[in-house]
Amino acid sequence: MLKDIIEAKPLEGYELYLKFEDEVHGVINITEIIEFTGIFAPLSDPAYFATVTVNPDLGTICWDNGADIDPVVLYAKVCQVNLEEYFEAKNQPHGSEHYKPSLCRKPSPAN
Questions:
Q1: Does residue 99 sit within a domain?
Q2: Which residue has the higher pLDDT, 94 or 47?
Q3: For the segment 30-41, what is each residue's pLDDT rounded down to a tens digit?
Q4: Which residue ranges are recorded for the region named Disordered (predicted)?
């Protein structure tokens, strides 16, 4: 199931803090996902990169020039799994010994 991004904050060095609707959150470095070419070229300017917003209709991050990134890619990155592993686990039946109910656990509440 697709997880929508509900919060995004730009950080130093092309990093983004992302929070998803299921409370999973983390920091990613965008340079590990995209190259600053084509529609992503303007993001190489730190000031423009910092204008990132969440598009609630798409459930992902975007910029004014129309650049956006698939939330599945971002979720897998936050969970620190590659996309093949992510989709393989999601496609396993619940009775399978390989099924993982959550590849990326919610953070434990603070005591």
A1: no
A2: 47
A3: 999 999 999 999
A4: 92-111
> If we measure between CA atoms, which residue out of 70, 79, 74, 72 comes closest to residue 106?
79
Total domains in the chain come to 1
The residue type found at 76 is A
Please say whether the beta carbons of 27 and 16 come within 8 A: yes
pLDDT, averaged across the chain: 83
Q: Is the pTM of this model over 0.85?
A: no
Q: List the helix and strand counts (H, then E) for the chain.
A: 3, 5
Residues 59 and 2: beta-carbon distance below 8 Å = yes
Q: Residue 21 sits in which domain range?
A: 5-90
Domain membership of residue 27 (yes or no) is: yes
